[in-house]
Specification:
It is a single chain. With about 240 residues, the protein is of the alpha+beta class. It is built from six helices and eleven strands. The strands form two sheets. It has an eight-stranded antiparallel β-barrel with strand order 1-6-5-3-2-8-9-11. A two-stranded antiparallel sheet has the order 4-7. It starts with 13 loop residues before the first strand and ends in a 6-residue tail after the last helix.
Length: about 240
């Protein structure tokens, strides 16, 4: 098992500020980034980001995030490239939020083959075959897969390398039924784009030079919350 070379390990607390662009175009979103204060330029290649989220059967993580609990946890498996088929270099991520700042614990997983009928028992086999701490294994036994999503992402970094923008588009969601793992697909409108500004806590005092110059407001957007509510509209309050 190995961590992908271009995977971002998050060992220090950072902020992730989001800007939601509705009825917009990818070209406009990229223009905002490239012309913003900070002199941002592309890094990495555009790639598809895939996530399968895990939650308790009564959606503890969903409710903690939905109602803004100050200390909360989100568990997901992330990989890049094709969504289905042979999945190489997947990463188990446990995101820890403390107020507005967050950290991320990352664990490489064994490769697997994702297809219709991939069950909780199959996930257990992946976790057992991977080198995970016992505390993490115990936490995973209390959770089930609840949502699959993917989106295209482009990356931009400031000249001083203190700030990074990601531009997410073509968001698609798949309902994961924990017993059968059948995948039902729904998408956000094509003109919904998420800008996310990521930076270490130590740079919070200087971030306003970037955010104040943008013609869009900071917003709240959780891909996990949105996906769960797309398939469970009764949960949206």
């Amino acid at each position: 098992m190995s961590t992908p070379a271009n995977y971002t390990l998050l060992e220090t607390a950072r902020f992730e500020r989001k800007f939601v662009l509705e009825n917009s175009s990818l070209a406009y979103a990229k223009m905002l980034v490239k012309t913003s204060v900070g002199i941002f330029s592309p890094v990495y290649q555009k790639r598809r980001v895939n996530n399968i989220y895990f939650d308790t059967p009564n959606l503890t993580s969903y409710y903690e995030n939905h109602f803004g609990k100050s200390e909360r946890t989100k568990i997901r498996v992330r990989w890049y490239g094709e969504t289905f088929g042979a999945i190489k270099e997947p990463i188990l991520e446990i995101k820890l939020k403390f107020g507005a700042a967050g950290k991320k614990k990352s664990y490489p997983l064994e490769s697997f083959h994702l297809k219709e009928g991939f069950s909780r028992q199959d996930w257990n086999k992946v976790f057992l075959a991977s080198e995970l701490p016992e505390m993490v294994r115990a936490e995973l036994t209390r959770n089930v897969p609840t949502l699959l999503n993917h989106y295209e992402r482009e990356y931009f970094q400031s000249f001083d390398k203190d700030f990074r923008f990601t531009v997410d588009f073509n968001l698609k969601f798949f309902n994961v039924k924990s017993l059968t793992s059948s995948f039902l697909e729904k998408s956000l409108p094509e003109n919904t784009i998420i800008l996310e500004l990521k930076y270490d806590v130590k740079n919070d005092k200087t971030v306003k030079k970037i955010t104040n110059a943008l013609p869009v407001r900071l917003g709240k957007f959780s891909k996990y919350i949105r996906g769960v509510e797309i398939f469970n509209p009764h949960l949206a309050v």
